[in-house]
Amino acid sequence: MNTAPLEAWGWSTDFADSYGRFIESAGAPEQLFPARVVSISRGVFHVAAPEGEIDARLLRRVRRGPAGSPAVGDWVVVEAAPAVGVDPRIVHVLDRRSRLSRKAAGARTEEQVVAANLDAVFLVMGLDGDFNPRRLERFVAMATESGAEPVVVLTKADLVDDPEAMREQAADASPGTTVVAVAALANENLEPLAAHLAAGRTVVMVGSSGAGKSTLLNALCDEEVMRTAPVREGDDRGRHTTTHRRLVQLPGGGLLVDNPGIRELQLWADDESSLEETFDDIEAIGRECRFRDCGHGQEPGCAVRAAIRDGSLKPARLRNYNDLREEQRRLEQRRDEVSRRAEDRRLGAYYKSVQQAKKNRRR
Ligand SMILES: Nc1nc2c(ncn2[C@@H]2O[C@H](COP(=O)(O)OP(=O)(O)OP(=O)(O)O)[C@@H](O)[C@H]2O)c(=O)[nH]1
Ligand SMILES: [Mg+2]
Ligand SMILES: [Zn+2]
């Protein structure tokens, strides 16, 4: 099997060794091949395989196994489709080099892998109303736990008078971590990120909705591959424009994962959404749209609207789809609001206790 095409997706000798060990123990190795998870939409794993990008399903015993469900960035072993009309199946998850996780909310904390096999985590924060150095502390701690290098990326440097002063403030809050201030819209100061995004390296971006993650990705691609949307006036809050995690190849050979907006790594359940399942016809047509995350509205090169024009898709169906999507976005915004308030309360209580402790010491 020719694994050369996988190198563009970050395949390395470590994974090749790990794969070799697995197929030695497997029954019919000629049916197997390695692939990397590029995106996931409920139950369907879109993977980059030696022959190109394909959809695969997950064996239940893999999901229940020690690695759990594969995440974006995972290297997996796929078994070719045994028959026409049957999807290829993921039979194994190769050992992870690193992983960014969050603790799933709920009665028992359960680890959920957000993205795997990362070299760096970009903690993306806007220098607008999103800027909050105190929040960085915990972000950096979580990113460090992943085994990848945390890098603080402050965006929208063009919107403030003294970005350098703010950069220093952020650097003070995250000692030992590289802090870069960029103006992605104007393509300014992106060079310091290049080393982290060298060929074969994988980086995940995390940060609030509206921080400018997708804008940064577009700037690095020199092309609009993801949709972006203005933040709300008044409080600079984002609109949860990106709804799916996705691994994107950059022109320089680096691999970058764009994420839906998150607060303190509290990723929403949006990627568990059932949208794709009930509207998989629209999802399938949508894969032909120019933008990988087309909203099927006014975007140029929209295949879905073309399908409506040529009569192969009913307008009512798109309306239902859009309504559901809008509902989901509102739900996400509400959750964001709740978590932001809880976070403010926690931070407030924390700093009060710090102040109190200082006072007590002085006494
Ligand atoms: N002036 C300025 N605006 C920026 C910059 N980067 C991003 N923006 C704007 O900020 C808004 C939000 O950007 P997005 O890239 O959609 O933010 P995001 O982090 O991807 O948001 P979600 O997908 O919702 O998580 C857009 O209107 C961008 O044009 C920048 O460097 N300068
Ligand atoms: Mg986005
Ligand atoms: Zn479209």
SSE topology sketch:
Elements: H1 13-25, E1 32-41, E2 44-49, E3 52-58, H2 60-63, E4 75-79, E5 89-93, E6 99-104, E7 110-116, E8 120-126, H3 133-145, E9 149-155, H4 163-173, E10 178-181, H5 191-194, E11 202-206, H6 213-221, E12 246-249, E13 255-258, H7 275-278, H8 280-286, H9 303-309, H10 315-362
This protein binds guanosine-5'-triphosphate (GTP), magnesium ion and zinc ion (ZN).
Protein described:
With 363 residues, this protein is of the alpha/beta class. The protein folds into 3 domains: 90 residues, Beta Barrel (OB fold (Dihydrolipoamide Acetyltransferase, E2P)), CATH 2.40.50.140; 171 residues, P-loop containing nucleotide triphosphate hydrolases (Rossmann fold); 90 residues, Ribonucleotide Reductase Protein R1, domain 1 (Orthogonal Bundle). Helix content is 33%, strand content 21%. It is built from 10 helices and 13 strands. Helix 3 crosses helix 4. The radius of gyration is 21 Å and the shape is globular. The protein starts with 12 loop residues before the first helix and ends with a helix. The relative contact order is 0.10. The structure holds guanosine-5'-triphosphate, magnesium ion and zinc ion. The site of magnesium ion has 6 residues, from helix 6.
- Terminal CA distance reads 73 Å
For the record, what is the CATH homologous superfamily label of the largest domain? P-loop containing nucleotide triphosphate hydrolases
CATH class of the largest domain: Alpha Beta
**Which structural category fits the helices and strands?**
alpha/beta
Report the bound ligands by name, code or SMILES: guanosine-5'-triphosphate, magnesium ion, zinc ion
Which geometry do the CA atoms define?
globular
Strand content: 15-25%
Q: What is the average per-residue confidence, as pLDDT, rounded to a whole number? A: 85
What is the rounded Rg?
Answer: 21 Å
Instruction: Summarize the helix and strand pattern as letters.
Output: HEEEHEEEEEHEHEHEHEEHHHH
Number of domains: 3
Range of helix content: 25-40%
- How many helices? The count is 10
Q: In which order are the strands of the major sheet placed? A: 10-9-8-11-13-12
Largest sheet: 6 strands, mixed
The CATH topology of the largest domain comes to Rossmann fold
Q: Which parts are unreliable, with pLDDT below 50 for 5 consecutive residues or more?
A: 105-109, 264-274
CATH hierarchy: architecture of the largest domain: 3-Layer(aba) Sandwich
